[in-house]
């Protein structure tokens, strides 16, 4: 009531006329009588309800706890319905939030890229310290940008192969250490067939095989991904062969051949071109040349 009167006083200078003031007064009194009538009626109904249902207050409190919105709609309900009618709470329904759809299959075109050449090499950051007291031979991993390989995974696979007890460390007085430094002794490069052919010149790799030229050990990404049929799907074993064969060249080893069929092939045999009756073998300590 106080606010309403204040509002009328504030509005009077704007209108500047007594008619507006009188009209406002009549309207105010009408509203006042109406409000009083509803207040008295509502209090009477509330009293009857509380006498007949002593727990009604508690029930309302409980209901208010579970539905603030419904309670709010009751308190601001304008007195336009007859007091004898039970006001229907205005229920507001909201659509439940739908969870984001989950992809159940790989999107199309997700085949790994091993052939599209960017021509740019990126160094895999990080170190794998040499374990042992022998001379260190450092190498860094470089992967052609755009290839679908995780650098850390490739680096871990290469280092695991080079430091395997069946590997070159058992034959040569050295320990391999991975670095990302520019002055590494060797660069182990994983590249598309296109870039492999360029980096291997003057050797001819024909888009199919790998090589070692100067300080570059170039691994053909197509071979790294798919190996060769003779390995019968043993891709990890073939990758170890690839690393050991090319690093073997860097250590001064030349090619050898299969001497006895059905025995492990020498690691320095060109196993990618065929096994000639020998069995797949990735380790220089097994029938080493
Ligand atoms: Zn070779």
TrEMBL record:
<keyword id="KW-0472">Membrane</keyword>
<keyword id="KW-0812">Transmembrane</keyword>
<feature type="region of interest" description="Disordered">
    <location>
        <begin position="1"/>
        <end position="32"/>
    </location>
</feature>
<dbReference type="Pfam" id="PF11350">
    <property type="entry name" value="DUF3152"/>
</dbReference>
<dbReference type="InterPro" id="IPR022603">
    <property type="entry name" value="DUF3152"/>
</dbReference>
<feature type="compositionally biased region" description="Polar residues">
    <location>
        <begin position="103"/>
        <end position="115"/>
    </location>
</feature>
<dbReference type="InterPro" id="IPR024079">
    <property type="entry name" value="MetalloPept_cat_dom_sf"/>
</dbReference>
<feature type="region of interest" description="Disordered">
    <location>
        <begin position="81"/>
        <end position="115"/>
    </location>
</feature>
<protein>
    <submittedName>
        <fullName>DUF3152 domain-containing protein</fullName>
    </submittedName>
</protein>
<feature type="transmembrane region" description="Helical">
    <location>
        <begin position="35"/>
        <end position="53"/>
    </location>
</feature>
<feature type="domain" description="DUF3152">
    <location>
        <begin position="116"/>
        <end position="275"/>
    </location>
</feature>
<keyword id="KW-1133">Transmembrane helix</keyword>
<feature type="compositionally biased region" description="Basic residues">
    <location>
        <begin position="18"/>
        <end position="32"/>
    </location>
</feature>
């Amino acid at each position: 009531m106080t606010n309403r009167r204040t509002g009328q006083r504030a509005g009077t200078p704007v209108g500047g006329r007594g008619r507006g003031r009188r009209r406002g007064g009549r309207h105010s009194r009408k509203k006042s009588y109406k409000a009083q009538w509803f207040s008295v009626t509502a209090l009477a109904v509330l009293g009857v309800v509380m006498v007949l249902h002593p727990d009604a207050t508690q029930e309302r409190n409980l209901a208010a706890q579970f539905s603030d919105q419904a309670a709010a709609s009751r308190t601001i309900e304008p007195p336009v319905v007859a007091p004898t009618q039970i006001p229907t709470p205005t229920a507001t329904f909201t659509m439940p939030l739908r969870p984001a759809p989950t992809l159940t299959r790989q999107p199309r075109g997700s085949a790994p890229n091993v052939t599209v050449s960017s021509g740019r090499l990126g160094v895999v950051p990080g170190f794998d310290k040499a374990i042992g007291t022998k001379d260190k031979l450092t190498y860094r991993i470089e992967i052609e940008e755009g290839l679908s390989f995780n650098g850390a995974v490739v680096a871990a696979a290469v280092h695991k192969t080079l430091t395997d007890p069946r590997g070159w460390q058992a034959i040569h007085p050295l320990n391999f250490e991975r670095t990302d430094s520019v002055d590494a002794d060797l660069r182990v490069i994983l590249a598309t067939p296109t870039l492999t052919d360029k980096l291997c010149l003057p050797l001819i790799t024909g888009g199919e095989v790998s090589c070692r030229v100067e300080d570059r050990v170039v691994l053909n990404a197509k071979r790294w991904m798919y190996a060769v049929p003779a390995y019968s799907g043993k891709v990890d074993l073939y990758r170890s062969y690839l690393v050991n064969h090319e690093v073997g060249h860097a250590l001064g080893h030349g090619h050898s051949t299969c001497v006895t069929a059905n025995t492990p092939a020498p690691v320095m045999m060109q196993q990618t071109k065929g096994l000639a009756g020998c069995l797949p073998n990735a380790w220089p300590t097994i029938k080493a040349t």
